[in-house]
Amino acid sequence: MYTVDPLARTLCLTDGKEGMAFVSNKWENRCSDLSYTLAGNGSLVSGIELNRVAAIVDLGTANDLRGRYGYDDAENGGVGFASLRLEGGKVMILQDNSNPAKLTCQPVQEAARLTDVKSSAAAPIHLGHIYLLRIADSRDKNSGQIVVKLMVIAYRPEEAVTLRWELL
Questions:
Q1: How many whole angstroms separate alpha carbon 106 and alpha carbon 114?
Q2: What is the pLDDT of residue 107?
Q3: Is residue 79 included in any domain, yes or no?
Q4: Tell me: the pLDDT tens digits for 97-122?
Q5: ∠ CA 130-135-141, rounded to 5°
Q6: If we measure between CA atoms, which residue out of 126, 115, 111 comes closest to residue 43?
Q7: Residue 39 per-residue DSSP state
Q8: Of 37, 53, 72, 130, which has the fewest Cβ atoms less than 10 A away?
Q9: Looking at residues 151-159, what average pLDDT do you find?
C-alpha cells in the first residue's frame, strides 16, 4: 500500500485489489478493508467503511510467537505465521511440531482481543510484525466476518508498506 496513491493506499481483502477506484472520473470507495495512514508514524487502519467495525491485534515478530507458544522454528522463520488458522471460531497456532506426523495446535491467547471491535481500529506498523485483523458489519450480524493474518514484510515510513496476508 502506498501513501501517495489514492487507489492503493487501501486494500480489499476479499479480492486483493486496491480499495479505491476511479469511476466516471470520480474517486470512489469500492472495498476498503485495510488502509495505510501516516497517523502515529504509520498505522494500519480498518473498520473505515460505513457500518464496518474492526479489531487489530499485533502479535509481535515470528521470534516473539515462537518464544510464547513453544514450537520449533528457524530464526525469523515462517512456521508460526503459516500455522495460524481459524478452527471452530478460534484462532489457533502450532504447539508442537517435533513429530511431523502428529502436529498439535493451541489457541492464540491474544486473539481474544479480536472481540473488542470498533470503528476505525488502528495499529502502528512495525517491520516483521504479525497481526490478526477481524472485520464485521455493525448492522448485519448475519453478514459474516473477515478474519485475516498479516505480516509486514517491507516498510518505508511515509511511503509504502508491503504485507503478506491470508484470509482465515
A1: 17
A2: 97
A3: no
A4: 877 788 889 999 999 999 999 988 99
A5: 150
A6: 126
A7: G
A8: 72
A9: 95
Distance of CA 19 to the CA centre of its chain: 15
Query: For residue 156, what is the DSSP state?
Result: E
Is the residue at 118 inside a domain?
A: yes
**pLDDT higher than threshold 80 for residue 140:** no
- Dihedral (CA of 11, 34, 124, 168) sign: negative
Burial class (CB in 10 A: 0-12, 13-18, 19+), 69: buried
What are the phi and psi torsion angles at 93 (to 5°)?
-140, 160
Average pLDDT over residues 123-145: 87
- pLDDT per residue over 58-97, tens digit each? 999 999 999 999 988 888 889 999 999 999 989 999 998 8
Contact 104, 29 (CB under 8 A): no
Domain total in the chain = 1
Q: Residue 146 belongs to what domain range?
A: 10-60+111-167
73 CB contacts (<8 Å, ≥6 apart)? 62, 66, 79, 80
